[in-house]
Q: What sequence folds into this?
């Protein structure tokens, strides 16, 4: 789907606001939920590219003058060329007791489902969801749901507490990610924080068009994003990798974006 590839509206620059509507016997329709711009998507005859024809908000047929590039490849190249790690303000940030001084937030996804490989010791220490009858992609099972944050220091997942369950103890194995301080008995349950520092990741990639997948401490963690492009998260991870020490960069495998 096109919004996975192009996650930023070329007109209003809003992330993850484009929708793709396939239509029978007519060109597919691309729409921005933020600025209401609409395009028709047509394959270029005899070539691999697609052409996007911007439609006027008042109705099809009238083109708005010259704002976006008409070809998909050019649109993509411009988006990638303008990509930068820019701090964003978000009500979820900073997180008391978790955020480090001067740690900046670059991306935020309010709702992700988290998968981990079934043998991960975190399942025996952190009140994970019960094992499903069959394992998910790559031998995973669900760890929970929560928010995913991309910061200047790490990939940070704030897992909502499982219903009617206490906080888990600290992970027993060193390979498991760090957690926030355990909640005292009787206190309101705070989110559990899975902290995956960029310098310690060995892989970041996408799986299908919905999952951002990482390997940390030889353990796999998958994040099923809702209404956000995993390619966007991977592209930001590429930018982050450029900040890392070259030796750390070399052992980090990044998928292609
Ligand atoms: Zn827009």
A:
């Amino acid at each position: 789907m096109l919004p996975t590839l192009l996650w930023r509206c070329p007109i209003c620059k809003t992330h993850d606001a484009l929708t793709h509507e396939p239509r029978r016997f007519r060109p597919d329709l691309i729409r921005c939920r933020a600025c209401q711009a609409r395009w028709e998507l047509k394959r270029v005859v005899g070539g691999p590219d697609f052409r996007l024809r911007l439609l006027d908000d008042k109705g099809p047929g009238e083109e708005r003058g010259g704002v976006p590039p008409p070809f998909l490849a050019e649109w993509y190249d411009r988006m990638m060329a303008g990509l930068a790690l820019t701090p964003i303000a978000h009500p979820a940030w900073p997180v008391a007791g978790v955020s480090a001084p001067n740690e900046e937030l670059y991306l935020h996804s309010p709702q992700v489902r988290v998968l981990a490989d079934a043998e991960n010791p975190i399942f025996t220490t952190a009140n994970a969801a019960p094992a499903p009858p069959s394992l998910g992609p790559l031998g995973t099972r669900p760890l929970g749901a929560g928010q995913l944050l991309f910061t200047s220091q790490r990939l940070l997942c704030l897992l909502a507490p499982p219903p009617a369950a206490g906080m888990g103890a600290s992970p027993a194995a060193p390979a498991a990610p760090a957690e926030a301080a355990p909640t005292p008995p009787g206190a309101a349950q705070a989110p559990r924080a899975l902290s995956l520092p960029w310098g310690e990741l060995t892989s970041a990639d996408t799986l299908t068009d919905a999952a951002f997948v990482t390997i940390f401490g030889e353990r796999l963690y998958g994040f099923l994003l809702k209404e956000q492009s995993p390619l966007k998260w991977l592209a930001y991870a590429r930018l982050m990798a450029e900040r890392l020490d070259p030796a750390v960069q070399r052992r980090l495998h990044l998928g292609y974006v």
Remarks:
- Confidence is low (pLDDT under 50) at residues 58-66, 165-175, 180-187.
- Residues 2-81 form one domain.
